[in-house]
Each structure stands twice: as C-alpha cells, then as structure tokens.
Amino acid sequence: MDTTCMAAGLFPHPPIMIPEVGGKELSRMALTVRTEEEAMKRMVSEGIDTVVIISPHNLCFYDGPALFLADTISGSLSAFGRPDLSMTLSIDRMLSEAILKEAEPLIPLHRVDKGQAARYGRALSVDWGTFVPMYYLLKAGFTGKAVMLSPCFSNYEMNEILGTIAERSAAKLGRRIGVIASGDLSHKLTKDSPNGYTQNGILFDRAVMDALKRQDKKPLTSMTPDFIEEIGMCGLPSVYFLFGVLGNRKADMPCFSHEGPFGVGYGVCLYLPREEVKKKEIHDVRVELARESIRYFLEYGKIMKTPDPLPAKLKGRAGAFVSLHEFGALRGCIGTFLPCYKNVAEEIIRNAKAAACDDPRFPPLAKRELPDLTISVDILSAPEPADISGLDAKKYGVIVENGARRGLLLPDLDGVNTPEEQIAIAKRKAGIGPEESVKLYRFTVKRYY
Fold first, then answer.
1. How much of the chain, in percent, has pLDDT values that exceed 70?
2. One domain, residues 361 and 230
3. Is 174 left (phi over 0), alpha (psi -120 to 50) or beta?
4. Last residue of some domain: 333, 354, 377?
C-alpha cells in the first residue's frame, strides 16, 4: 500500500456549528453541516485507527508548528457559554513520537506536553478548532485515537512538509489515518461581517476552493503577505498541511461545499486517496462512450458519429439517462425514457452531450471540467402502467402524466425514500399541481459507472 491515509479533508470550526451552541442559527449554514456530516461518515467508514488533526487555535509558535503530547487531552466549549459540552481525546503516542522523530532533521516541530504548555500560560487542551470537527467525527462513530497539531503562520511550506511527515510516519507504522485540516477561510466576506469587509475576501475563498478542487496548490503560492493579511483568515496553513498529506497522489472527492452565511468562509472537502485503484479502474463501455461523446463535442463543436462496428451491448434500443457529477455534486442529467434513436449507442451519445451542455439548471460544461467528472449511464426498461401500491422508490423509477405534461424521476435517489415523495417531485418537474390527478407508470433501471 502506497499510503495508509484513508481519508483527508478541510473542515471549518465555528462553534456556532455545534447544535447546542448555534440553535436556530444552524439553519443558515445547513449546507456546511450536511456536507461535514456526510464527510465524517465517509471518513469513519474507511476504518481509520487514528485521526491526525491540525488546528490554528491551539498554542502556535512563530518558528515552527507544534505537536501536543499526553495520554489524554480534554477540552470544552466553556468559552462559548457551554461548559457542559466537553470531550476527551486519547492521544496516539506512538504515531506522535514517530512524527516528532521524522521531523527532527527537517523542520522545528515543537513538542508540547503539559509542562511546556504551562510555561506559556496555557493548559494542554482541546481547543475549539479541534473540538468542532471532532464533534462531528465522534458523532459519526469514531472511537480511535488522535494526533493533535498546530500550524506555523510564518512559513506555510513548513506545514506542507509536516503533512508529508505525518503521512509518511503513519505509513511506516501501518497506521490507518484520517486527516482533519481545521480552518476557516476569509473572515471578511460581507459588509455586515463583524471582522470588516474586503472585496478580496471572496477572491481568496474562490482561489482556495478551486485549488482544493483541482488538487493543485499553485494558485495559493502567488498570494502576497499583504493580501493574506487583508482578507483575514485562519485556515490557509491547514490547507498547506492537507496538500502535504496528499502529496502528488490524486484522490476522489465525494464531499465538497462552500458558503459564508455570517461573513466568514466555510469550506468543506473530503479526499479519499485512491491512486492505485483509479489506475486499475475499467469503466463500462456505455460510460466510456458517454465520456467520449462529451470530449468530442467540446473539442469539435458537433455530435460524434456512432462507432462502427458497434459492440453488442450498444446495438439494442432503449431509453437512457446520462448523469454527470463533479466532486460529488450534480453537474447535469439528461435522458430519454423511450428510445428516440436507432440504437443505445446513439441514445447515449446525444444524451451525454445534452447533459454536459443543455441542462438548463447548469452552465455548459467547460473542457477543463471533463477530467473531474464522474459519469453514470442508466438504461431504462419500457414503462408499464402502475398504481402507487406497485411502486418502490428504490426499485422503480416513476413517470407521471397529465395530458401533455409528463414528469420522470429515476429510482434509488438520495433523500427520496417513498413513492409519495417520488410522485411529488415528478409532478413538480412536469408543472403538475399537487392536487391534480395523474396516470402513473413505472420502470426499472440498470445503472453503469
């Protein structure tokens, strides 16, 4: 195994994100909470032994990052009016010591125990930058140990080196780790922000999120100290640490979001390193045809011809939907529930182009986005009349019909669990009112990735 890092990501840390602190205000950052909950579930599902977390709100040093060492470290949100919200983390001392040893000839990594913290007038504790992401990781079922770090703000490259060291140390021990880079983005996104406002705030956030999306830190290296000072942030050192953990390996990104409801940028992303798996991955011929159709149209501005000769899998006739996702988010979906063309191949070719360029919910796909797309192709059975008792949201797709108005919903969609929900959504898509009667049809789907 090239790496024992099973998952790594950027996570924000506003205490208002904790339900017991945020209360009703939590609804204003619902996207961030939802994405973080999903990311933490995915991280736990990877079977991690230890979480390595770096937070900019613990004891930080000017000349280098720090590692916090004890058998256990505790903390609470008493500074935010909730001393009853507390946690105790068991520290992975073996991995912590391995990181310290590996760092010794490379960077000045401060070893902070209780005595050292006391010399600086601090208690060795779980700070809020650690507490908030760990709250969601523990909620997701994590029961392992932790390595706690803080970054260096005077030299971002040191944090990248530290990330490399942490990943390498875990690999040498065979330790399956998850990595949390804790940090908020610009604190000056809006004119009502309590931290002030600068129009460069959103430019910073976009640059960071784009760098994370493309797994390329180069856009960040051109930022001047004055620019970084102006936008007000705490998360950039953690982002560099994250890039160090990932190294040059590519990774899947199933979770990705950004919002700034309180004038502070909250970015969430999760990487699942899968370099060797991706090299060996072989997609179905239908999916490869869809990708080639999009590539051809973006390159030449016209629909590609149907391959000749056709593989047997592409010779029949059937309705087909092509769905595009980019970093876990829907990017386009167009299809036909009845066959409209000579064969399945042409159905896929035309619907793939339409999903990329003609879905009215999204701007046309740019050529640079193609490498980041995850594509699936659904081949539909012929629709058959049904009533609601014969529907199953996981097994059957549904078509609703009222005169010339017709709406369709594919089966087994996230968040759609009942036939009633299916029908309601399909009606909305068709512009059919909730109380209007409809004819129902069901169909099955064979999905290819």
1. 97
2. no
3. left
4. 377
Bridge partners of 7? Answer: 178
The answer on 392 and 361 residing in a single domain is: no
- Quote the CA–CA distance of 329 and 37 in Å, as a whole number: 15
- Distance CA(235)–CA(237), nearest Å, equals 6
Phi-psi region of 216 (alpha: psi -120 to 50; beta: other; left: phi over 0): beta
121 backbone φψ class: left, alpha, beta (φ>0; ψ -120 to 50): left
- Contact predicate 13/57, CB 8 Å: yes
- The pLDDT tens digits of the residues spanning 313-367 come to 999 999 999 999 876 678 999 999 999 999 999 999 999 999 999 999 899 999 8
| Domains: count for the chain | 3
> In the 8-state DSSP scheme, what is residue 81?
T
Residues 178, 41 within the same domain: yes
Q: Which of 347, 377, 407 is the last residue of a domain?
A: 377
Same domain? 370 vs 391: no
Read off the tokens for 432: 């059919």
Residues 251 and 388 in one domain: no
Confidence of residue 250 (pLDDT cuts 50, 70, 90): confident
Virtual torsion, Cα 424, 427, 431, 434, nearest 10 deg: -50
Q: How far apart are CA 97 and CA 111, in angstroms?
A: 9
How confident is the prediction for the chain on average, in pLDDT?
93
DSSP conformation class of 304:
P
Q: Containing domain of residue 326, as a range? A: 282-377
Cα–Cα nearest to 48, from 270, 257, 243, 268 = 270
DSSP state of 58: S
Could you tell me if 351 and 322 are in contact, meaning their C-beta atoms sit under 8 angstroms apart? yes
Can you give the CATH number for the domain in which 95 is found? 3.40.830.10
Q: What pLDDT digit, counting tens, does each position of 123-179 carry?
A: 999 999 999 999 999 999 999 999 999 999 999 999 999 999 999 999 989 899 999
SS3 174: coil
Q: What is the pLDDT of residues 32-54, one digit of tens each?
A: 999 999 999 999 999 999 999 99
Q: Which 8-state DSSP code applies to residue 310?
A: P
How much is the pTM? 0.64
329 exposure class (CB count in 10 Å sphere: 0-12, 13-18, 19+): middle
Residues 127 and 142 in one domain: yes
Contact predicate 326/373, CB 8 Å: yes
CATH number at residue 326: 3.30.700.20
One domain, residues 336 and 415: no
Q: What is the pLDDT of residues 297-316, one digit of tens each?
A: 999 999 999 998 898 899 99
Tell me what the mean pLDDT of segment 234-238 comes to. Answer: 98
312 and 270, same structural domain? no
